[in-house]
Design a protein that fits this description.
It comes from Geopseudomonas sagittaria. With 117 residues, the chain is α+β, with helices and mostly antiparallel strands. The chain has 4 helices and 5 strands.
Length: 117
């Protein structure tokens, strides 16, 4: 399955489970670890776990074997490594603390600013 198709499966699963603030970041030019990061918020620890479980269920149904998952025990955050796509699901306060959008999108903006100098 192509990376873009996998992102669409992940987003559809998150939307079905009422994930909040779904963001996709194309990181192909920034890292060799993965192609895309999908970040979403859940309203509670139970919601975060449900989001992750549903994503795993939907991608497995498409024949994708997840490489691993982390952090789902507490329900504050979870990371799903699907190879070409890494999914982060977090409660809003945790998401704000880690601020992955700024980290990954800001790196590109910072490089562009330094290139102009």
């Amino acid at each position: 399955m192509q990376s873009e198709q996998l992102v669409q499966v992940v987003i559809a699963a998150l939307e079905d489970m009422k994930a909040q603030d779904i963001t996709t970041i194309d990181v192909r030019d920034k890292t060799s670890i993965t192609d895309f990061m999908v970040i979403a918020s859940g309203s509670s620890s139970r919601h975060v776990k449900s989001l992750a479980d549903t994503v795993l269920e939907k991608v497995k149904a498409q024949g994708v074997k997840p490489i691993g998952s982390e952090g789902l025990d507490s329900g504050e955050w979870g990371l799903l490594d699907l190879g070409n796509v890494v999914v982060h699901v977090m409660q809003p306060a945790t998401r704000q603390f880690y601020d992955l959008e700024r980290l990954w999108q800001g790196a590109e903006q910072s490089r562009a600013q330094h290139a102009d100098e």
